[in-house]
């Protein structure tokens, strides 16, 4: 009698553990009809064991990719091997809402799972057991870390004031394009742009006003960019734009459009309207250039010519042969 009582107690303990354990436990027939559904699954699905028993899994949970899950389970049935799924490959099997306050940023529960075979006395697989683990904490922490790392990488490339590429990242892009042009013989142009009389703005209205002007001019640069162009803040009030696969005529059109955009700006600062202009220099890549700095120097020389000739204008650099001759 005591032996029977002991067996009953053990079964009671097992059933109690089965219902309260903090993982999902699901037992399916090999044709995917639900036989067992523990408390975890009931709490998160809102469906009781009575409601799901003998129901087809894919009829109840249409979000499950049937073809994918069958591919996972077929080797479990045929080879009697375990199978595993991880949230990085597929966020969840069962689309359960996430109710944890700590991981409130996640709409749904991220899940890992283990699937293993259940055999009869003859060793034939008759059922599949799925264990569902809630890994939302781990997943959201990983995703947040990756997001922060991505933001840090972006910040390391970005000028804080203008949100354009900083000089280092922009010059890396120019170097890459320069090497490509050396190999391909394609045409690209470089534009250097400087705000005219910028020191006067700082001296008259203060550095905060100067920052406001720089930001507005940077926005004008962005507004005129194509997807393939690479713009950066080269220094102080100077900007640089790499115009990929662009001839000097096309670059002149871009530069004139930018110059006019800036000329028409009315920049509000402390209830005053500030107006500025820009001088622009353009140099098309030439095969005689031995390094990317020669390209920058050529565009800079054209920029200085615009300054010397009265500002608020665009100058195209002379050919490389003329430059070297001069």
From TrEMBL:
Domain GGDEF positions: 186-319
Cellular-component GO terms for this entry: plasma membrane
Entries under Pfam families matching the protein: GGDEF (PF00990)
Lineage top rank: taxon: Bacteria
Cited Gene3D superfamilies: 3.30.70.270, PAS domain
Molecular-function GO term, any one: diguanylate cyclase activity
Alphabetical GO biological process terms: cell adhesion involved in single-species biofilm formation; negative regulation of bacterial-type flagellum-dependent cell motility
Catalyzed reactions per annotation: 2 GTP = 3',3'-c-di-GMP + 2 diphosphate
InterPro entries per the UniProt record, alphabetical: Diguanylate_Cyclase (IPR050469), GGDEF_dom (IPR000160), Nucleotide_cyclase (IPR029787), PAS (IPR000014), PAS-like_dom_sf (IPR035965), Rev_trsase/Diguanyl_cyclase (IPR043128)
Obligatory cofactor(s): Mg(2+)
Principal EC category: transferase
Enzyme Commission code(s) on record: 2.7.7.65
Matches recorded under PANTHER family: DIGUANYLATE CYCLASE DGCM-RELATED, REGULATORY COMPONENTS OF SENSORY TRANSDUCTION SYSTEM
Protein name as annotated: diguanylate cyclase
Lineage of producing organism: Bacteria, Pseudomonadati, Pseudomonadota, Gammaproteobacteria, Chromatiales
């Amino acid at each position: 009698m005591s032996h029977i009582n002991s067996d009953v107690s053990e079964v009671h303990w097992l059933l109690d553990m089965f219902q309260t354990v903090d993982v999902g436990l699901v037992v399916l027939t090999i044709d995917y009809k639900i036989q067992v559904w523990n408390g975890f699954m009931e709490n998160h699905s809102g469906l009781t064991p009575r409601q799901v028993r003998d129901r087809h899994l894919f009829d109840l949970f249409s979000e499950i990719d049937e073809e994918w899950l069958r591919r996972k389970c077929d080797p479990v049935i045929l080879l009697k091997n375990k199978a595993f799924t991880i949230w990085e490959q597929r966020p969840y099997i069962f689309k359960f809402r996430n109710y944890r306050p700590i991981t409130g940023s996640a709409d749904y529960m991220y899940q890992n799972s283990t699937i293993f075979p259940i055999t009869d006395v003859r060793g034939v697989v008759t059922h599949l057991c799925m264990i569902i683990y809630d890994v939302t904490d781990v997943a959201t922490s990983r995703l947040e870390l990756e997001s922060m790392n991505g933001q840090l990488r972006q910040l390391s490339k970005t000028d804080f004031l203008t949100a354009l590429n900083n000089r280092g990242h922009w010059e890396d892009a120019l170097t890459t394009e320069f090497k490509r042009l050396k190999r391909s013989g394609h045409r690209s142009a470089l534009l250097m742009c400087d705000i005219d009389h910028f020191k006067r703005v700082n001296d008259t209205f203060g550095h905060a006003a100067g920052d406001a002007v720089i930001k507005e001019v940077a926005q004008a640069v962005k507004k005129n960019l194509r997807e393939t162009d690479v713009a950066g803040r080269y220094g102080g009030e100077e900007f640089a734009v790499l115009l990929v696969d662009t001839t000097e005529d096309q670059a002149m059109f871009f530069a004139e459009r930018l110059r006019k955009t800036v000329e028409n700006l009315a920049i509000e600062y402390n209830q005053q309207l500030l107006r500025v202009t820009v001088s622009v220099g353009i140099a098309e890549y030439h095969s005689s250039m031995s390094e990317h700095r020669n390209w920058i120097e050529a565009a800079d020389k054209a920029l200085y010519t615009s300054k010397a000739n009265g500002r608020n204008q665009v100058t195209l650099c002379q050919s490389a042969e003329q430059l070297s001759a001069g």
